[in-house]
User: Fold this.
Amino acid sequence: MAKATVSELDKRLSAHEAACEVRWRENYRRLEAIENGISSVNRTIRNTLIFVVTLFLGVTGFLLQEVIYQAIQ
Assistant:
């Protein structure tokens, strides 16, 4: 196998760097999409939890009010 010249190595290295740059740009784009998806899921979970806790407190307050009302009667 013949030895590569400096210009050939420079050309190959430049092509390699260009290909890696394209791959990394795609990876960063994908990571950002994944992070956005995770953030969306986190917001959904948080909002659902707030709704469930609020509902639970409302039902508990209503039942406690009924128990107290029945105790007074």
Notes: The first helix runs from residue 6 to 72. The helical segments are 6-72.
